[in-house]
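agent: user wants the structure for Acetyl-coenzyme A carboxylase carboxyl transferase subunit beta from Sphingorhabdus wooponensis. delegating to structure tool.
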Amino acid sequence: MNWVTRVRNAIPFIAKRETAETLWHKCKGCEAMIFLREFEENQSVCPKCDHHGRIGPSARFDALFDNESYEILKPPVVGEDPLKFRDTKKYVDRIKAARAATGETDAMKTARGKINDQMVVVSVQDFAFMGGSMGMAVGEAFIDAVKAAIRAKCPYVIFTAAGGARMQEGILSLMQMPRSTVAIQMLHDAGLPYIVVLTDPTTGGVTASYAMLGDVQIAEPGALIGFAGQRVIEQTIREKLPEGFQRAEYLLEHGMIDMVTHRHDLRGVLSQLIGYLAPEKKAA
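agent: tool returned. relaying tokens verbatim.
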């Protein structure tokens, strides 16, 4: 970057021109160039090959709730960097960078609203925030969401997307696995449904805990779902894994999940499931 560009970018009243990166999106499925606005208006689904791109909490909530109307639950306050962890960067610096890039406080966001006049609490993991990794903030957000669903006597739906537990928090991140499992039992004791929507990717400790404990397990098409990585498994068992292994369709075929649902159909499917599982909770 030369000095002219640096000066130009530093002057706030000079508007930056739109570039190819801000106007077009390259599909990771078919590599077609798609007008970015068209891609986002289609819920980040490729109109040519139907590849499901990753989306954040706000876009997900807007697509799900009636009239895009919902209440965001206050994010929990937890201790940051309890282990004073540092690799190539300080953990606190990584958190700051993730917050600046996403505008979120951590990797899970929860909202309360209605889907076809049926009250529901929905959490969304944001893969853009440190790979959606599960740390103390995510664990606490999950538990807070369960408690909110119990107070409202409504179902709890979670959209998972994570690389696993957050290594910078060590054993404290792994402790969120049993904590979330106990919270799910609280939902069951209250007679409330717990519905999981697995999105790309859902792996590691998240898969080994709350992501696979739903009363109903839904996945988006083509989502990567697993615990260990495919290469690690192949090196361990010294065998070539079958085509499509750890993809949503493979898991459906082998009985690991209940259904694979297109993103455009999720609102209707969730509404139907909520009606089946908690019909008495329907708004008058």
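agent: one observation worth passing along. Residues 114 and 202 are 26 Å apart (CA to CA).
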